[in-house]
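Hey, quick one: can you model this chain's 3D structure?
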Amino acid sequence: MPALTAAPKTKHYYRNLILFGLAVFALIIAGLGINLAHGRAMGLVHPDRHSPDRNPSDLGIATWEEIHFPTPDGLLLAGWFIPPGAESGGATIIFVHGLHGNRSALLDEAAGLAAHGYGALLLDMRNQGESQGTVTTLGLEEWQDVRGAVDYLLTRPEVNPERIGLVGHSMGGATAIRAAARIPEVRAVIAESAFTSIEDNISESIRAVTGLPAFPFAPLVIFFAQREAGVDMHQMRPIDDLKQISPRAIMFIHGQLDEIISVNNSYALYAAAAEPKELYIIPNTGHGGLPQANPPEFSRRVLAFLAAYLR
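Sure thing. Here's the predicted structure for all 311 residues.
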């Protein structure tokens, strides 16, 4: 009986083997991409909480209060209230921090303005710091936190209800724009390192943080984030809210070298805003530390803006 021999491998066999290997590789890459997008989305919707590690006393502010106040949708937020000095005519600023932050993030700016008589309300946004909440919506619902802060200020006799302003950084800057468009009591806004829309911001951050292309990863991040948060993230478009702010004044501040939210966002926001408006681009500066880049110039510009449009 003749011995059995294996059939020779054909070209089709090797082609199919290569195609199978490529398919497995593509599935692995797709799985890694989906996991990456999901992890990024969860980090946005469920940022790490950090309690404040300092308070106004640490910056030499003698008179201040620990406060709590509700939002229109039923959350209890934590904050600090620094009453305005008599020389400011009751002018008071609400400070709105960014993602992964808390009320202490903008304490240096608040202290700088308090030295010139401005009052301040610094709050922990929902789902951050020591405030209630289980999800972050990147400004879409956080404007209600600002509404709660304004309502609290309206109960304080030291505060002039016609001299309430907003200062926000990063997500807080975008939130301040959205809030001002919906809260008529806000008379002036300073938006620092703000973004034009969620789509633009996530696309830019995907490229900057991971080096991956915005498509298809940015749409996946948005999909997972809005499924987790239960909101339509595409509606978070501060650039479309600007038309509701005029004739109230707005100032945009941005670091020229910002790699997290490109300076192009503030250029676009400024172009879309109506007068009165101002734009301050700080050279050789990234996403944070804007006041520290050039303290005298930063203080001069901010104080001049508030003197003209709030005080």
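One thing worth noting: The domain at 50-197+236-309 is CATH 3.40.50.1820 (Rossmann fold).
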